Amino acid sequence: MAHTRLRPPTMADVARQAGVSHQTVSRVLGDHPNVREETRARVLRAIEEMGYRRNFSARALATRRTRTLGVVASGTTLYGPASTLFALEEAARSEGYLVSTVSLRKLTMETLSEALDHLSEGGVEGVVAIAPQRSAVDALSELRHPFPVVIVGGGSGVEIPSVSVDQHLGARLATGHLLAAGHRSVWHLAGPEEWQEAADRAAGWRATLEEAGVEPPMTLCGDWSPLSGYRAGQELAGWVGRGLTAVFAANDQMALGVLRALREAGVRTPQDVAVVGFDDIPESEYFAPPLTTVRQDFAAVGRRGIALLLELIEGHPPATAPRIAIEPQLVVRASTFPQAVQSEGVPR
């Protein structure tokens, strides 16, 4: 009768079958160079015959390394946070780490504390927090945790190690492009007030106008959705003919709503009003007309965010202040023909 094993094989079982010590099996599993090839082959054969699988939990206890990183995220139904989360997971996997993600509806002191406690119990070595709201950044600054934390998407003024796209620069690129195209002023549809990135984009827009000697017009505020852009666009349409010729929307989804509202009001884009968005979502190239926008390099944010976290985990923080800004890129499309060209009669 065949013997049925009642428990999974251990390293000691492998050592016994291969006729070697426990330490030799450990060296083979660790790919240690000081093992004779004949011995290595015998151990590997025993491992295969017995179906031995390494106990990673025990290994983690012994080495104090789980090779698992935590991510705390919110707003992942939106393009920016969702793209950032995907980029972080890809970057972590490329470095040989697993990712444990906690998605929260709201980032508050209480929910963040619970999330960090949960990740700590899971043995993560460090955490990346996608924290676009000021309140979330403030809460993370006050909370104590047993591992390094890096913030991504937190905008400017973050005191915790952070990586983000330079939102201020992105807004300057968008606004400066419209001014260079001949527009005397640029109106702005801002994102939610509690989002630091929205505040940074508004600040970049305002600074660019003021440096050009232009008094910033009133700011409209949306919630990132096409619907809020559409409602703002209905209001903006009433200012056409009274000085409004260019609009900078704080994201592409709101720009989509603006384009529809203007079109329904009989306002042509870009002949009557030029429109610029922010994010360069995949659909923006197929808007009517194709949307000029600011592209954020989320893959770079993911790579730099994970790299910074690993440096902190290894005890090798960067020599300079760990606040990294990624440069955005202006992508020019048909929604912003120069004013000089428009006057010559550009087709719709």
Arithmetic mean pLDDT: 86
**Protein structure class:** alpha/beta
The radius of gyration is 27 Å
Ends: how far apart? Answer: 84 Å
Percent of residues in beta strands?
Answer: 5-15%
Largest sheet: 6 strands, parallel
Low-confidence stretches: 1-5, 340-348
The global form is elongated
The tally of helices reads: 13
Strand order of the largest sheet: 2-1-3-4-5-11
Residues in helix, %: 40-55%
Elements, N to C (H/E) = HHHHEHEHEHEEHEHEHEHEEHEEH
Strand tally is 12
Assembly type of the chains comes to single chain
Describe the structure.
By secondary structure, the chain is of the alpha/beta class. The chain contains 13 helices and twelve strands. The chain has a six-stranded parallel beta sheet with strand order 2-1-3-4-5-11, sandwiched between helices. A four-stranded parallel beta sheet has the order 7-6-8-9, sandwiched between helices. Helix 5 packs across helix 12 (298-313), helix 8 runs parallel beside helix 9 and helix 10 (226-237) crosses helix 11 (252-264). The N and C termini lie far apart (84 Å). The model is unreliable at 1-5 and 340-348 (pLDDT under 50).
Describe the structure concisely.
With 348 residues, this protein is α/β, with parallel strands linked by helices.
